[in-house]
Amino acid sequence: MSDGLISGSAEEVRYEVRDSVAWITINRPERRNAISRHTVQLLVKAFVEAEEDPDVWAVVITGTGDKAFCAGGDMKEMDSVARAGRQVHTPMTGEYRALLEVMLETYKPVIAAINGHALAGGCEIALACDIRIAVEGATVGLTEAKRGMGANFGSVVLPRLIPRALAMDMLYTARMVPVEEALQMGLVNKVVPREEFETAVKDYVAGIVANSPVSLRRYKEMATKSWGLPVSSALRLNVGPNPYTSEDRAEGVRAFLEKRAPQWKNR
Question: Does residue 144 carry a catalytic annotation?
Fold first, then answer.
């Protein structure tokens, strides 16, 4: 088990590993967990650490408090940059190319525990996850059009996750969608009452890491790298660890026959 802060002058991102799960928390409640340039750098570092740690089998990202999962980019910082005559960052360039790509390419299950409103860049962070569990009363929304911005990641990924007409409605109107509606869209996997939220997330993730980490990584790599490929090509992609020749496969079969819980080796 490891815990603490990813190195930085402010306690903006908390990182803890327990029970094979890396818990990454955006810790800026006074700014509704909005992400500054520094926060982005810390989040990238946290996801890279989780990806490289063989003892981490799944990753959860959440926010501090009960108001916001992440309110998007830090508007005060953006305004300060603009007033100083400096260029506000352009998506997919420089250090800002990394975060959402790193999340997509973290070849372990990534779960968004949406503890409050997930808006603009915060919604895009949730979209970069594999699973989204939300608390009752929260909203999700790509609100960039209200601020003259572009939702670059969301405008590409959202229409691939839900029907295009629903995705374009969210983009064009920039509305804050209740998570209960997002559940009906298929954008959110589960909506949980506030008093049950923390336990529900922990139980859900525990159910994931009870499975073979070799299989989990195989699923993530195949699903990510085959996205958009024709089925005939995707079936022959063969990326990620090979579960069919793994020690975990032998252990899984033996545990089934011996009627016991498997002891995974992650190899």
Answer: yes
Look at residue 7 and tell me whether its pLDDT is greater than 90: no
Q: Which two tokens stand for residue 32?
A: 């509704």
Confidence at residue 37, expressed as pLDDT on a 0 to 100 scale: 86
pLDDT tens-place string over residues 10-27: 589 999 999 999 999 999
Residue 19, both tokens: 């029970």
Tokens (6 digits) for 134: 């939300």
Q: Is the dihedral of CA 203, 59, 53, 222 positive or negative?
A: positive
* Residue of 12, 124, 196, 221 marked catalytic: 124
On whether the CB atoms of residues 215 and 266 are closer than 8 A, the answer is no
211's tokens: 């499975």
Is 196 catalytic? The answer is no
Residue partners of 184: CB distance under 8 A and separation at least 6: none
Of these residues, 51, 144, 247, 258, which one is catalytic?
A: 144
Please report which confidence band the pLDDT of residue 54 belongs to, taking 50, 70 and 90 as the band edges: very high
Q: Supply φ then ψ for residue 117, to 5 degrees.
A: -60, 135
| Whether the Cβ atoms of residue 256 and residue 211 lie closer than 8 Å to each other | no
DSSP string across 16-39: EEETTEEEEEE--GGGTT-B-HHH
